[in-house]
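Support request from a user on the community tier.

User writes: "When I paste my structure tokens into the form, the page sometimes reloads and wipes my input. The last time it worked, I copied everything first. Here is what I submitted, just in case something in the input itself triggers the reload:"
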């Protein structure tokens, strides 16, 4: 099958995502990443569009399982209902612990979940990218906080960091965290 036909087949799958021509950027990740400090609840502050995340009050909770994998519990409020998605994260290469793989289905491969930076206590910046034959890629980026709202200068710093790493943020949007109830 030619690359052109493959592209035509895949385009509807990525239509709600942020995609670009060429291969994925290769951003630096958090040095000396400490998973134990990273675990817990993070609130979505801003993100590149993702068809699998809709609504408001979006948060993620990470917990270590007995088998060494990481439980990922994402939740949000959409059209009057709480939506929850449970997944699994792994560290494929212990030499690069900030480059995790995350999956929400047994039938799909793990997607990248790279912790670009974190201070563990207030903010983290995450990047994910899927390269299609080096012809184009679709990517996601998240700015997450330990609280529902971050100071504007912190968000600006996070965005500048992603831009410096070659990530196009022209479609990044703030997540509505107003009127949310904490669990």
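"...and here is what came back when it finally went through:"
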């Amino acid at each position: 099958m030619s690359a052109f036909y493959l592209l035509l087949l895949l385009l509807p799958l990525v239509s709600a995502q942020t995609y670009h021509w060429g291969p994925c950027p290769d951003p630096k990740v958090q040095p000396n990443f400490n998973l134990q400090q990273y675990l817990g609840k993070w609130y979505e502050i801003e993100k590149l569009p993702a068809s699998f995340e809709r609504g408001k009050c979006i948060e993620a909770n990470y917990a270590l399982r007995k088998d060494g994998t990481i439980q990922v519990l994402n939740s949000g409020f959409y059209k009057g209902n709480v939506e929850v998605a449970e997944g699994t994260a792994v560290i494929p290469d212990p030499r690069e612990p900030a480059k995790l793989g995350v999956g929400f289905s047994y039938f799909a491969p793990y997607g990248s979940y790279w912790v670009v930076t974190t201070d563990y206590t207030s903010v983290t910046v995450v990047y994910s990218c899927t390269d299609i034959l080096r012809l184009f890629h679709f990517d996601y980026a998240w700015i997450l906080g330990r609280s529902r709202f971050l100071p504007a200068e912190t968000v600006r710093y996070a965005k500048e960091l992603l831009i410096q790493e070659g990530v196009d943020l022209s479609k990044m949007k703030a997540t509505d965290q107003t009127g949310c109830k904490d669990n």
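Agent notes: The reload is a front-end session timeout and is unrelated to the input. The longest strand covers residues 81-90. The first helix runs from residue 3 to 10. Escalated to web team.
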